[in-house]
Design goal:
CATH class of the largest domain: Alpha Beta
Helix content: 25-40%
Organism: Coccomyxa viridis
Oligomer: single chain
EC number: 1.11.1.24
Enzyme class: oxidoreductase
Number of strands: 15
Protein name: thioredoxin-dependent peroxiredoxin
Strand content: 15-25%
InterPro entries: AhpC/TSA, Peroxiredoxin, Peroxiredoxin_C, Thioredoxin-like_sf, Thioredoxin_domain
């Protein structure tokens, strides 16, 4: 039997059921999927557009009010087609780190203009709050005169589309985007809220983006205008790395007390000498070679009657010896007396067998 006591009176309409959670927003945009345990959870949730910013893809379009030149105007990404754009988001107006960044970008905006680039700031504050902050003197925590537009992402849809929005806090992270004249994203970086940006680095990345676009070459680590670039193929990379001795930092040296042999003739002269010889075959990239190097130096001091030498298997003059001598594992230690190999090689990080072989060689 039905319990009619809980049914609404005939003159009252039954409460409408809650609508199913929509997969799209009212304007049809895809929204982030969320899990709800109750209708009340649904009532308290806020929908944001899913992130759409991807390197090599068109930057999400936007049109929003902005504070510029002491007034409120409308700014669109479309306004800057044909120019590079540096779009940077920051958390809040009237805060602490944010004004240092905005003022730095504004004060150096002419440098970016000279690179055919428009700098645009953005936060989730209203345009009126932006304007009030601008009209506050810098010595009282304001921005003062600013030469770049500051977008008002009041609906938070722009920062959400760019993947810059902290949904928990309802404000943007310190996110930076470089967009090329065709509207394509070339660079994305996002800092947590307490970490300010380096304007020099933003400018350097912009210049690298422009260099690649203009010259078709690629920029290695630490590239600055005027530095060497490289062609994006194996031949070009080899040409670049051939200059590493001149301009790039070297790998940390190890085993410096052990003499390096130069080539095959140097090896033959060494193993045919008056002393028995130990030859270590190593490579700078070899971790075990580095680990055992101090021990090998100790053995050299302990057994002065043995000639200790090493051969860098990555050197052009030594590389042919690898196959000839059957070196397949690094490090490999070979032992010679009177020009002939006199013991089984020792390979890998094996201190005990290595010292045992040296003892026999020294007898």
């Amino acid at each position: 039997m039905c319990d009619v006591s809980k049914a609404p009176p005939k003159h009252q309409a039954a409460p409408a059921s809650k609508p199913a959670i929509p997969p799209t927003s009212p304007n049809g945009q895809d929204m982030k999927k969320r899990a709800y345990t109750s209708v009340d959870d649904y009532d308290s949730e806020i929908y944001y557009p899913s992130p759409q910013a991807k390197i090599g893809h068109p930057a999400p379009e936007f049109t929003a009010e902005a504070a510029l030149d002491g007034d409120i105007t409308t700014v669109s990404l479309e306004d800057y087609k044909g120019k590079y754009v540096v779009l940077f988001f920051y958390p809040k107006d009237f805060t602490f780190v944010c004004p240092t960044e905005i003022i730095a970008f504004s004060d150096r905006s002419d440098e970016f203009n000279d690179l055919n680039c428009q700098v645009i700031g953005a936060s989730t504050d209203t345009p009126e709050v932006h304007l009030a902050w601008i009209k506050t003197p810098r010595n009282k925590g304001g921005l003062g005169h600013i030469k770049i537009p500051i977008l008002a992402d009041v609906k938070k849809d722009i920062s959400a589309k760019y993947g810059a929005l902290s949904e928990e806090d309802g404000v943007a992270f310190r996110a930076t985007y470089i967009i090329n004249p065709e509207g394509v994203l070339e660079h994305i970086s996002i800092n947590n809220m307490g970490i300010g940006r380096n304007i020099d680095e933003t400018k350097r990345v912009l210049q690298a983006v422009q260099f690649v676009a203009e010259h078709g070459e690629v920029c290695p680590a630490g590239w600055n205008p005027g530095s060497k670039s490289m062609k994006g193929d194996h031949v070009g990379a080899q040409e670049y790395f051939s200059t590493i001795d001149e301009e790039q930092p070297q790998e940390e040296a190890f085993g410096s007390k052990i003499r390096s042999i130069k080539d095959k003739s140097d090896l033959e002269k060494t193993i045919s000498g008056s002393k028995p010889a130990m030859v270590e075959f190593y490579a700078p990239w070899c971790g075990k070679c580095r680990q055992i190097a101090p021990f090998v130096e100790e053995l050299q001091e302990k057994y002065p009657g043995v000639a200790f030498v090493k051969a860098d298997t990555t050197a052009d003059s030594i590389e042919p010896l690898i196959n000839e001598l059957g070196v397949k594992i690094l490090p490999t230690f070979k032992f010679y007396s009177n020009g002939k190999e006199v013991a089984q090689p020792v390979s890998g990080y094996k201190k005990g067998p290595l010292e045992d072989a040296i003892k026999q060689l020294a007898k």
